[in-house]
Amino acid sequence: MEKNRTWQSFWLTLIVLVVLIALFWLPRISLGGTELRRVNLLSDVQRLDQGGNNLAELLADSLDGYVKERIDSAAIAVPQLAYVDSVPEGMVVIEDFADVDGLHREMDRFYAALDEARQRPVRIAYFGDSYIEGDIITMDLRAQLQQRYGGCGVGLVEISCISSDFRRSVITKRDSWTAYHANEKGRGFKPALQGIAGSYFIPADSATFEMRGTKSLYPGLLDTAAVATLYFTPGEGLSISSSLNRGPAELLYSNGPAQIPETYEELVEVIDSDSIVTCETVTRVVLPEQQDAGAIIAKSVQGRVGRWNLTVQGGTGSRFYGAAFDGTAGISVDNFSLRGSGGQHIGKIPLETLQGFASVRPYDLIVLHFGLNVANEKQKNYAYYASQMGKVIKHLQAAFPKASILVVSVADRDTRGPDGQMHTMDGVRELLSYERKMASDCGVAFWNLYQAMGGDGSIARMAEKKQANLDYTHINFAGGRHLAGLLFDVLMNGKANYDERTH
Fold first, then answer.
1. Which of 75, 102, 218, 223 would bridge with 213, disulfide CB 3.0–4.6 Å?
2. What whole-number distance in Å separates Cα of residue 469 and Cα of residue 136?
3. Mean pLDDT calculated for residue range 31-39
């Protein structure tokens, strides 16, 4: 009787299969200048493009430094966008995750507001860390938007900050103030008292503040404004006087006892048979203003504002947040930079405080640009950070329900590798994937700045062009102008696509 040798066929088939799989992983081989086709057991069932090429293989071959990153699968599980903007060659567009049907997009509220910029102020709040300190990026973005849609002035400026001495877009001076910032918690900072910029300022009696435009950049846009506004929470017995363009001081605000600042003569027409016009003495009485305790107060003066001087007297318990130079219409961009921050401090600003700012200074676009102080070389998982910043986004949505929110990813940050060459820190690529997932989960917009600036090693290349510092982390003013131009072009591309969809 003949023996059963079926097992031999099984082992032969298994050996052949193993050999074919091994051949797939061999490097590409050329023979006589012709590249041999790689062995692929699944070639008959894989998707092909119109030219007959394996789409999966083409994608793998096209991976650059951004896509080659090792990313947790959960971090990149984002929905496919229902509508994708038309993209000029080389542009990294904004991804909008507000609505997967493509009909109600996060950025649409901002784009619609731009159509009203000639009739009203359109405001942008740009939150970030030291990457935007000194009005870097925002200074040039503001200028380009104002040139396109109108507006003037530098926006909201803190009473005091670390960048005051090197900021080019405004000149400020102050005397007799105590500053409290969210990144200086060991100095008596109380989160419940902070304003929208993560800071607050307590005046001594007769404290002064001066703010004036600069002609060093963008003449006609920054040297003068049409409206100057002071933002504060008054204490009892507070009196504020202001002087515009070195003119006489006038009372801006008072909640103390009634004041009689001056007596003056006024022409009064007396109706009688003789139609006599007489001159009578009139006394002006200033009554104290009644405000809710803890309210955010905005007091403004209008005119051709080049210099604004303020003097504060009394008002125990008063807190001041900053002053703004704006136009009566057009674009306003506020730079809210906090050195060393990951952005989590925004979630600790009381909701009622943010809502108070929303009532006196509503925003059409809020930009969140953080991550530089979060990414590091060793860490791969940033789920904790995405969760924290997701709560920040929800916090801002509750306070500013009419504002679009745009998350700008962490920028490139380089470190020197074993080969002696500068390359992107692994944590940067990992972090931005979580930031993108966070934007998707929260239904807001996302812009991949890392990819837009050139991907792997781009900050080193910017340093070679004198656009970044040799720490291979921070950009300078020249670099800010470059990146602001990229963001402006992306926003205008989004606006053009919005117009095409809605008109």
1. 223
2. 13
3. 44
Which tokens sit at 137?
A: 């990026």
> At a CB cut-off of 8 Å and minimum separation 6, what does 445 contact?
94, 95, 96, 97, 98, 105, 106, 107, 404, 405, 406, 407, 439
Exposed, middle or buried, 472 (CB in 10 Å: 0-12/13-18/19+)? buried
How far, in Å, CA of 346 to CA of 191, rounded?
A: 10
Alpha helix segments (H runs only) across 53-186: 55-62, 108-114, 138-149
Q: Are 369 and 157 in contact (CB under 8 A)?
A: no
Burial state string for 275-301 with b = 16 or more CB within 10 A and e = fewer than 16: eeeeeeeeeeebebeeeeeeebbbbbe
End-to-end CA distance of the chain: 86
Query: Encoding tokens for residue 235?
Result: 């204490």
| C-alpha closest to that of 209 among 166, 252, 260 | 252
Q: Please give the Cα distance from 362 to 123 (Å, whole number).
A: 7
DSSP 160: S
Q: In which element (H, E) is residue 315 found?
A: strand 307-316
Burial 123-151 (b: 16+ CB within 10 A, else e): bbbbbbbbbbbbbbbbbbbbbbbbebbbb
- Cα-trace Rg, the chain: 30
Which tokens sit at 66?
């951004």
Q: Report how far residue 63's alpha carbon sits from residue 230's, in angstroms, rounded to the nearest whole number.
A: 51
pLDDT digits over 5-21, tens only? 666 666 677 776 666 66
d(CA 129, CA 133): 7
> Would you state the pLDDT for residue 413?
94
Q: What is the arithmetic mean of pLDDT over 470-490?
A: 96
Residue 483's nearest CA partner among 382, 367, 366 is: 367
Q: How far is CA 233 from CA 179, 217, 322, in A?
A: 15, 33, 11
Asked whether 486 and 443 are in contact (CB, 8 A), the reply is: no
Per-residue confidence (pLDDT) for residue 258, from 0 to 100: 57
Three-state SS at 331:
strand
- Domains of the chain in start order, with CATH, are 72-151+329-503 (3.40.50.1110), 152-258+285-328 (2.60.120.260)
**Structure tokens given for 192:** 């419940």
